[in-house]
Specification:
The complex is a heterodimer of chains A (555) and B (375). Chain A is of the alpha/beta class and 555 residues long. Chain A is 30% helix and 24% strand. Chain A folds into 4 domains: 6-81, 2Fe-2S iron-sulphur cluster binding domain, sarcosine oxidase, alpha subunit, N-terminal domain (Ubiquitin-like (UB roll)); 98-213 and 358-422, FAD/NAD(P)-binding domain, CATH 3.50.50.60; 217-355, FAD/NAD(P)-binding domain; 459-524, Arc Repressor Mutant, subunit A, CATH 1.10.10.1100. The longest helix of chain B is centred in the N-terminal third of the chain and has 17 residues, at 71-87. The mean pLDDT of chain B is 94. Chain B has helices at residues 14-25, 54-59, 64-69, 71-87, 105-120, 130-136, 158-171, 212-216, 284-297, 341-357; strands at 2-10, 30-34, 47-48, 98-102, 125-129, 146-150, 154-155, 175-178, 183-187, 190-194, 198-206, 228-235, 245-248, 254-257, 263-266, 271-272, 281-282, 305-314, 322-325, 332-336. The chains are: A alpha/beta (555), B alpha+beta (375). Chains A and B meet through strand 6, helix 13, strand 30 and helix 15 of A and helix 7, helix 9 and strand 18 of B. Strand 30 of chain A pairs antiparallel with strand 18 (305-314) of chain B, so a sheet runs across the interface.
């Protein structure tokens, strides 16, 4: 166990924390899971664990609206639960933020596999390259590195990530971690901020490698503290060695769930349930065989994982989906689930869900990159050339932000885009051959996991569909009954999508419900119009950004 | 297909809806047809303007007289909103007044002159010195030396108002169509409008904001209705302390706080309409300039995070409302507020409905006749 040598204050309690931990991890380790109260008096805690959902907001040293999952502990830090409407008062800033305007040849956004590989490839051609990543812990969601000092990689995946990150740092590329990208304008112009510097970046070419975030199932109780994404639980463990709970129930669809179940079990958590919505692969051997053919090593790793879980007494419950979650006693959650026709319940401290992914394509959409709806994955895919260039000249997209494709494909796409963006080297056919193999594997993988997921259109009336504004399915249905002209009309009528997560969870659900109501197939215009800021950003940061390049607004 | 009705309202924003409501109340069969494109009302930020906006005076000095002559309409507009607030069961209408701030002696002198002119037009305004200003609004930056407080002013939540207004019209059986009307005229004693569908009515009311000029031109009127795309911002919620509508004597800004605790910042910074006929897009310079100015005025907002920016379309016309028939006894009537369309919408809509139905409008509309645009 890590030495918890720091102390922070949470409300009136003292919490020990290890250097490098996130505030969310330190609080979770101390058994604290309620981080804030909503306008309607509901309790919320960590949910996405990656800075997207904005539900883990706390007050730190008197400053409200700070994400516990994205903020590192500091000795003596005072953390308090955030009130629904924090006081409006002048809080003396530590210092005026520094400002920097950068004009690199290549800007890479995102420090996961695709982004790191792209930056390394671009920098090695001699191009002036900058990589910005919103996290301070490197590696993105796939390689997620340890945030703690002096801990060894947990496994090969983390070791591979460490090696790639070292390669990035050794390359001539400039790495800026902890940089929240909050806007993109035609040009492109990218605006970002770290804790102490406000950046305005005008790159010649842009490579977007912003990955994806997880899709939950919207069921009654999915907003309760203790219910989180599988990725959030994985980050708590892999980056901070904090188990999400003593007993954990995992519901989802796809290979990540079994992987995290195994990681948590190895870490000492009791896995109360590992459920997948897909039918057992035994019932459908042909995709499993295709999987083995596409990448025998990876397929073997996957089947080995399931076998290892079984040895630990955890067998995947196939064809199983959660129906509702309720709090039964302090820190105990009870999930009602359906296994086929049978209804049963399971109890756990933490309930984790992952029912697929949504690409983080906000920057691409803002810049006008065209996209197509992919019905298999229920999300948009960015139109790209063979060199990963989008329909916007000079803007490239690699990895899951352009539609789910997996980390191995993202690595190759990053290398192709990194070379193409510098205009110096044509991508080799060896690269495209590898990419084709990874894509075949992904295709077979998701055929193995193909499932009829519960449709949000059928969600119970009391289900919250917009976590931020606390809007329920029945309110959405009432708005749909008025035959709204478009998704914006529903947003204005219900406030769905007007909160801090900016529609990341409710947007796709609403688009699907509206499409079901109108019968109009989903496309890139079915979603909320892209808007700046793409993440909530303080007025101090916006005002310091160097965007006065052309005309002024007044006179 | 032809839709037949008594009163056809072209434009489904707050002005057209108010006209439809008044006509339906009077017993008419009413149809609203709306192009569902770049509306002002659906993007509005909820200021109830009464005092002359420094933005308008600065951008359109030649139209200052027009604006000044419209002030009685603005005063009456607030009453119309209060009536609507009652009728619709609350639209978060707050009337704690609007402050226009001066940070120099010169700006203060400008406000004093402006206040005198406005008092003559029936506005309830007073000049606050520094001490009085900070008693009223302790959240303001200390840079200000004086302010004009207009007691008529306030704010409301346009999302709530639009939703409840639509529900009320539905309840009254007003029919709604999405269509873009491209031509209107009179045929055999009826008013006709042609879009994808054809509409035949006893009277037409044009409440189409920036789309009105194009419809009026073939009828012999040249009404300047270019849309003015404007930038807006909204923050995450905070404790409710900003009760007033805030403006500046010399710089473009409106700032207010909704009942939700969110701070809305706008006030006339330009947006653009140039990308593929899509929604109006924001300009980065407007974003930074607008919010930086907000921080100079209410320093505490600097720590708040912006959640969203958007743009809506204002239609200033000539700074004066356009109300009444195209020609005496004509079948086609106008309902154009001329700047501050959301504030003026309810009163302008009601006047236009009365004009179209031949009843007595709630106020004299003779000063606003469309005649001034005849060739």
């Amino acid at each position: 166990m890590m030495k918890r040598s720091l102390t922070i204050a949470f409300e009136n309690e003292t919490v020990n924390a290890a250097p490098g931990m996130s505030v969310a991890a330190a609080l979770t380790a101390a058994g604290q899971r309620v981080f804030r109260e909503t306008d309607q008096g509901a309790e919320r805690g960590i949910f996405c664990g990656m800075g997207v959902c904005q539900d883990c907001l706390v007050e730190i040293d008197g400053k409200p609206n700070v994400r516990a999952c994205m903020t590192k502990v500091r000795d003596g830090m005072r953390v308090a639960r955030q009130a629904p409407r924090p006081s409006l008062q002048v809080r003396p800033a530590a210092e005026e933020p520094a400002t920097e305007t950068v004009a690199p040849d290549v800007l890479v956004i995102g420090g996961g596999p695709g982004g790191m590989k792209a930056a390394i490839a671009a920098a090695q051609t001699g191009a002036n390259t900058v990589l910005m990543d919103e996290r301070t812990v490197s590696g993105g969601q796939f390689y997620k590195q340890t945030g703690l000092d002096g801990t060894e990689p947990l496994d090969r995946q983390q070791a591979d990530g460490a090696r790639l990150h070292d390669e990035l740092l050794a390359s001539p590329a400039r790495y800026i971690g902890g940089a929240e990208i909050w806007g993109a304008f035609d040009g492109p112009v990218i605006v970002a901020a770290t804790a102490d510097c406000v950046y305005t970046v005008r790159p010649k070419t842009l490579i977007v490698a912003t990955g994806a975030y997880e899709r939950p199932l919207m069921i009654p109780g999915w907003t309760l503290p203790g219910v989180m994404t599988v990725g959030a639980a994985q980050t708590l463990w892999r980056s901070y060695r904090v188990p999400a709970g003593k007993t954990v129930a995992i519901f989802g669809n796809g290979p990540l769930n079994a992987q995290v179940a195994l990681e948590l079990a190895e870490g000492g958590a009791a896995i109360a349930m590992l459920a997948d919505a897909a039918p057992s692969p035994v019932t459908r051997p042909s995709p499993a065989l295709a999987l083995a053919a596409a990448d025998p090593a990876l397929a073997a790793k996957g089947f080995g994982m399931l076998a290892n879980l079984r040895r630990r007494g955890v067998s995947t419950q196939w064809n199983t989906v959660p129906r509702s979650i309720r709090q039964v006693e302090a820190d105990q959650l009870e999930v009602e689930y359906a296994r086929g026709e049978r209804i049963a319940t399971v109890r756990a401290d933490a309930v984790c869900m992952n029912f697929g992914f949504q690409p983080q394509n906000e920057i691409l959409r803002l810049l006008g990159a065209r996209m197509d709806y992919d019905p298999r994955f229920g999300h948009l895919r960015t139109q790209r050339t063979e060199t990963m260039e989008t329909t916007v000249k000079g803007v490239y997209a690699v990895g899951d932000c352009s539609g789910l494709g997996g980390a191995p494909a993202a690595l190759v796409e990053g290398e192709i885009a990194g070379l193409a963006a510098t205009g110096k080297t044509a991508p080799s056919s060896a690269l495209s051959g590898r990419l084709q193999r990874h894509r075949r594997f992904q295709k077979a993988l998701w055929e193995t996991y193909a499932a009829d997921l519960p449709d949000v259109r059928d969600a119970a009336p009391e289900t919250i569909v917009c976590r931020c504004e606390e809007v329920r399915k029945e309110q959405l249905d009432a708005a749909l009954a008025a035959n709204p002209s478009d998704i914006g009309a529903v947003k204005r009528a219900t406030r769905i999508g007007m909160g801090r997560c900016q529609g990341r969870y409710c947007g796709p659900a609403l688009a699907s419900c509206l499409s079901g109501h109108t019968g109009k197939p989903l496309d890139e215009f079915s979603y909320f119009a892209p808007r700046v800021p793409v993440k909530p950003v303080s007025i101090a940061v916006v005002a310091s950004s160097d965007l006065s390049a052309d005309d002024t607004a007044d006179d | 297909m032809t839709e037949k009705t008594d009163i056809l309202v072209i434009g489904g924003g707050i002005t057209g809806q108010s006209a439809a409501l008044a006509a339906a109340d009077a017993g008419a069969r009413v149809t609203i047809v709306d192009a569902a494109r770049n509306a002002g009302s659906t993007a509005n930020a909820g200021s109830l303007h009464v005092q002359m906006q420094s933005r308008f005076l600065r951008l359109n000095p030649h139209l200052a007289d027009n604006l000044e002559s419209s002030l009685p309409l603005y005063v009456r507009a607030v009453t119309a909103w209060e009536e609507l607030d009652q009728r619709l069961g609350g639209v978060e209408l707050v009337r704690q007044g609007g402050l226009m701030l001066a940070e120099t002696a010169e700006q203060a002198a400008f406000l004093e002159q402006k206040a005198e002119r406005e008092i003559r037009k029936g506005l309830d305004v007073e000049i606050l010195d520094r001490d009085a200003l900070f008693r009223h609004a302790p959240y303001l930056s200390e840079r200000f030396v004086a302010a004009e407080l207009c007691h008529n002013e306030g704010k409301l939540n346009p999302l709530v108002a639009n939703r409840k207004m639509t529900a009320e019209l539905d309840r009254l059986g007003v029919s709604r169509h999405v269509d873009r009307i491209v031509q209107i005229g009179e045929e055999n004693g009826k008013a006709v409008a042609q879009g994808a569908e054809r509409f035949v009515a006893d009277r037409i009311i044009i409440a189409a904001a920036w789309g009105s000029g194009e419809l009026a031109r073939p009828l012999g009127l040249t009404i300047p209705t270019p849309g003015e795309p404007l930038h807006m911002n909204i923050t995450e919620p905070a404790e409710y302390v900003i009760h007033h509508l805030i403006q500046h004597a010399e710089r473009s800004i409106t700032l207010k706080q909704f009942a939700s605790g969110q701070v809305v910042i706008g006030g006339g910074w330009p947006a653009t309409l140039d990308r593929d006929d899509a929604l109006p897009a924001i300009k980065p310079q407007s974003l930074t300039g607008n919010v930086a100015l907000a921080g100079e005025i209410v320093p505490a907002v600097v720590g708040l995070r912006l959640l969203r920016t958007w743009a809506g379309v204002n239609t200033p016309v000539d700074g004066k409302a356009t109300l009444g028939p195209i020609k005496a006894g004509g079948l086609i009537h106008f309902a154009l507020p001329g700047d501050a369309g959301y504030t003026l919408g309810p009163i302008v809509g009601r006047c236009a409905a009365a004009s179209a139905m031949g009843t007595t409008p709630p106020m004299d509309i003779a000063p606003f006749t469309p005649d001034r645009f005849a060739a």
